[in-house]
Write a structure and sequence with these properties.
By secondary structure, the protein is α+β, with helices and mostly antiparallel strands. Helices cover 48% and strands 13% of the residues.
Amino acid sequence: MMLATIQSARATAAERSARRAAFTLLEVLIVVAILVILAGAASFAYFRYLEDAKVGRAKSDMRIIESALKKYYMENGTYPTPDNIMVLAPYLEQGQLGLQDPWGRAYSFQTNEVQDNTSPDGGMRMQVLVICQGAPGRQPFTVPDSNTGR
């Protein structure tokens, strides 16, 4: 009789430890919820990083276009018209692809006459602004940056 009681107690203890070795549904749901929150935070940071990289690439492209405009002016004595920006393609490494921003839209430019404070006579000079429309829903930006001068 004593042997049966000992075997019964061992069987009950083994069942309890077997049940306890598995995860409960609540524990699994909590782990999944934590993973979803972490993935959401990481993806938000990743997409913001990608957007910042596109803006950096656009500003770099715009400086190259600004340089191409200056080369065109040196060779031809005048700037191209803003609706004829394709004439700059031979001055760019990427050709016509260099005239599209990372969002797939075309860059544009405008020329303005500005006061030249660096010259002794204080005359006027032409300033070239390369314009990028940027991401949909965001403000366009220019090179040189109107806030910093570069």
